[in-house]
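Blinded run. Sample ID left blank on purpose so nobody reads anything into the name before looking at the predicted structure. Input follows.
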Amino acid sequence: MRGVVFTGSRKLELMEFDDPTPGPRDVILEIKASGMCGSDLWKYRAEPGGHAGPGHKAPAGPIIAGHEPCGVVAEVGSAVSESEARVGQRVMDHHYEGCGACKHCQSGWAQMCLDGAIVYGAGGHGAHAKYMKVPVSTLVPLPDDLSFEVGAAISCGTGTAFGALRRLSLHGDETIAIFGQGPVGLSATQLAVEMGARVIALDVSSERGEMAKEFGADVVINPSNVDPVEAIRELTHGEGAHKTLDCSSNPDARAAAVRATRSWGTACYVGETGEVTLEVSPDLLRRQITLVGSWTFSKNGQADCAEFISDRKIPVDKLFSDRWKLDQAEEAYRLFDTQTTGKGVFLM
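Blinded prediction complete.
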């Protein structure tokens, strides 16, 4: 089979790999949809031999990209029971492999494994290929009414947004300001609207700002044109938003997210890498601000996200601006690298 491999310096190759075979406790997924995530750009842009990204074990040899897997079970290992997985079952994958025994793995947070985790698409073969081998323990059922591409979104970007909103304990009578309207930020906007919150969406891209409006944002702010903190305060009776969420990884946006939060409010960082500079007393202590980080979601949280979307008939498929075949991977990542579009997905 062919798989997409990032070779560095904004280059990739479609390389040949043997079709995977399952170990006793593995299954083989026939991938139907494999989403493109902003964190893919670390490897896509990196110098050859560069770092795979935070929290990743270093891989050996070429690694198939893609960590938003969704498809059907094609083959099961000899020690996999029918109650665990069956051929033809529609599934997503919780894209981490840990030891399976530590307290974090046991609670569904394999990415926080005390022995270190393998992140599929970075430290282990991912989903930008026809088939993918995963432990049966990482499977998450895909509700029948959700498409494979929606399942791919839930498997990282949309699931990450859902996990962050849970970390924020967002309520329907609150205002949330969401900094960055890439795939994760747009998902957060869509989900927060469904949760009943008033949403202020921020992005420097007019295209993404328009998408945020379509997704139900009450107000869209371009922070390159106005002071975002002052603009948010003007919209909230001078107080600031109850909750803020930074999905951008931009240091200025991160600082603004904290400063735009009202006293006793909560700010959450979900965008990875980079730095932020804050004045501890005026920005945090003297306003009693809670600052939290949120890293993707647990396996159970992924299932909860899928059920939330299914039950409320949320049109997550509108998140996708581009659908591709694997042999279009070079064009797909060139466009995605501009960070002006919605989400991209490979359909097999």
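Unblinding after everyone has recorded impressions. The first strand starts at residue 2 and ends at 6.
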